[in-house]
Amino acid sequence: MPDTARFNSAAPCLLVRDILRSLEFYKCVLGCEPGYLEADPPVYATLHRDDVTIHLALDRDGDKAGSNRCCVFVTNVDALYEACIAASAKITRKIEDSPYGLRDFNLSDPDGNEILFGEPFRK
Asked: Is the Cβ–Cβ distance between 100 and 63 less than 8 Å?
């Protein structure tokens, strides 16, 4: 592939059943700040924390919410894990040093979307 393009960042879009409920979860549990909010009732929103932006889209058909997965690379993953535990987040995989070089854990949002939070580690 020609060396003419560079990927700089990504912003996952997660399908949810209730935009406002999801915004509240991402704000209270993960410390994200709301950004854009479209329509009344809401059908699309963005939120961010540091250099990461997450998009939320209303699952209009009601059959795809909770089927999304994404990875967010962080610093101090242990502190984030403890904060998620303290906020009673649904942890679906406890923090561990994974064979692929990340110290990581998974959590599930209110709709069942899975987010892996990880930080590279050195063996």
From this structure: no
